[in-house]
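[job 4471] stage=fold_predict status=RUNNING
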Amino acid sequence: MSNLVAYIDGGSLGNPGSSGIGVVIDGPTDGTIRIAKWIGHQDNNVAEYIALLEALQCALGLKATALHVFSDSEVVVKQMSGEYSCRSPRLYSLNWICRKLARSLDFSISHVPREHNTEANGLAASAARRKHCSNLGATARAATGHTSIARAVPHHQ
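[job 4471] inference complete, writing structure tokens
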């Protein structure tokens, strides 16, 4: 496995509120990976960082050498690229962990308008509306051994 591309999004119903993440990873030989996960009661920025963390962990689990991430969160993109400093105590640890994991890859991150991130956004929104993804998660664990993949299906376009 070498190069992966991920589209990520995190969101909450209320800020803070019931939150979910959506991650779409293109590049695996087995097809596109789609992750939708409820992450509890969080704010939007925490949800965005948890989506990035999920993409990084998945890429490392797949033994990727490179990961390019597209996110519609200007805060996450600019903090991860060093353009903004991370002063928020609640985001600092997530930023630090993501930076540490990103150093294990040829990592890059770019901002994408929300209208070009609709699949990840839809996954995050659907995850925020439900309390858990136990049925899909159990299927993914059995198929992949990766506990956070809600559904891995071939990409057809």
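[job 4471] summary: The radius of gyration is 14 Å.
[job 4471] exit 0
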